[in-house]
Amino acid sequence: MPPRARIIVDERQGKWPFYKVYHAGKYHNLGALSKTTYAEALRRAAQIKGHDDGGPRPRIMHGVTTAWVERHASEFHLQMIAPLDHYAGDMDPNDFSLADYLTHLVTRGSRQEKRAGKPLKPETIRKYLRTAKRVVDFGHSRGWMPSQQMPRLPSVQRAPRDLNASQLKWIFDHVTPRQRLVLEFIVVTGCRPIEACRMTWDMIDMAAGCCRYFSKRKERVLWLPPRAIQILDAVGTDSGHVFRSSRLGKPYTSTGLRSVVRNATAEANASPHGPCSSIYALRHTAAQYWLDQGVAMEDVAKLLGHSDLKTVQVYAQIRDQRARAVAKGLGSALDGAG
Question: What are 42-83's pLDDT values in tens digits?
Fold first, then answer.
């Protein structure tokens, strides 16, 4: 803590005190200070309010979070503790519930200006909740609050990320023939956009029907179905990069392909049934189609170049969601007929 720095406690700034640091003739927001200074400022502010470890049991949750932050001073922890302090800062530690805090995180939406009102991502909710559990365990170890079990996070319905036939047709009809070739190649092979951009003719083995990528870690084999072979025959080149954005011979870039798809779907996205504007939706379409056709998950992972099956399980979850929706719709139709 810099010498002659004072903690300014302003009771009018919210439900609990708002702390500033006065140093070198001006006020400093706590968030703009270094990690050590931030933690020291919180500790001294807690001493002003009588919530330090040497004093009595904290009367509000803010005292518990302040004591915890002092021992875990890092930017990550301070970011994760802010929602807890906003929600339960003036709450009695015995009245705080992790289950109620989870409900608050799920329903409140984001407070950030760019994402105001939008729901928090499941990964963000999980981080917030784990930090709150650490604070509760810390308070319980000092006899300030009872112990609590970690509540179970609600299951998340993943939105489909693939495209149907009409959406693909829309995209292909709003791009140039040269652009359509590379986009169709991504759909039929399930390759990554960057793999299509970097593909050169010396990587392709027409006899084996595959394209081989070599890296320091492993070899990636991209299998070429008959439609992909037809696309390669229609490209019209036989050396250098396969897919080129202009007659000058410059290869496509992943950023350029994103712009192509984004521009092609700009008008269609005004409709709720318009195609997704992400270039990766083409790759997701291939993966979802293979699973829907009964291809084993291990084979789909190999076709996509994934070494972890957990990545492919996302597509299986979407397939199961669709099956449940179809079964539910059939039951509703039968109820209506009766």
Answer: 555 554 444 444 446 778 888 888 788 777 655 556 677 878
Chain region(s) in the chain for CATH 1.10.443.10: 165-329
Please report the DSSP string for 44-91 in residue order.
HHHHHHT-STTSS--SSHHHHHHHHHHHS--HHHHHHHHHHHHHHTTS
Six-digit token string for 245: 């954005």
Q: In what order do the strands lie in the sheet with 219-223?
A: 204-205, 210-214, 219-223
**Beta strand ranges found along the chain (DSSP E):** 6-10, 18-23, 26-29, 204-205, 210-214, 219-223
Radius of gyration of the chain (CA): 28
Cα distance between residue 182 and residue 195, in whole Å = 11
DSSP letters spanning 81-126: HHHHHHHHTTS-GGG--HHHHHHHHHHH-B-SSTTBTPPPPHHHHH
Task: DSSP letter for 157, please.
Answer: -
Cβ neighbours around 135 below 10 Å, total: 27
Least reliable range by pLDDT among 55-64, 200-209, 225-234: 55-64
Position 273 scores a pLDDT of: 46
Q: Quick check: 93 and 56 in contact, CB under 8 A? A: no
Nearest by Cα to 92 from 133, 59, 138, 53? 59
Residue 102 contacts residue 152 (beta carbons within 8 Å): no
Q: Are 276 and 265 contacting, i.e. CB atoms less than 8 angstroms apart?
A: yes
Q: Which fold has domain 165-329?
A: hpI Integrase; Chain A (1.10.443)
Q: Which of 31-45, 221-235, 302-316 has the lowest mean pLDDT?
A: 31-45
